[in-house]
Automatic annotation (TrEMBL):
Alphabetic keyword roster: Signal
Organism: Pelagimonas phthalicica
Protein name as catalogued: Bacterial SH3 domain protein
Endpoints of the signal sequence: 1-19
InterPro entries: SH3-like_bac-type (IPR003646)
């Protein structure tokens, strides 16, 4: 009985850790990303995500992200995910002008 209780606590803790690491991500701009049934190219393609689609990452395995979208779970390559929306504005760096020969330094 004690072993069963310890196993249940470990399992609950592991599940909580996965839920705690869930995060929002977006498919990269210009990328149509295959949604697969498992974490690898040898798994069946079961759908496609369009560029800039907002998804929720709930886990990782060998560079593959397990994602939640519309109450379903899929696996996608983590290489094509970003942590900001496609219309996220990044402030450009200030231009610095040097004293030597009027060259611009960025």
């Amino acid at each position: 009985m004690k072993k069963l209780l310890i196993s249940a606590i470990i399992a609950a803790t592991a599940m909580g850790a996965t839920a705690a690491t869930a995060s929002t991500a977006w498919i990269e701009k210009g990328v149509k990303l295959n949604a697969r049934s498992g974490p690898g190219t040898y798994y069946k393609v079961i759908g496609t995500f369009h560029p800039c689609t907002k998804i929720h990452v709930v886990g990782w395995k060998n560079g593959w992200a397990k994602v939640s979208y519309n109450h379903h779970y899929y696996w996608v390559s983590g290489k094509y995910l970003q942590n900001h929306s496609c219309n996220h504005y990044v402030k450009p760096k200030k231009k610095h002008y040097g004293h030597s020969h009027g060259h611009k330094h960025y």
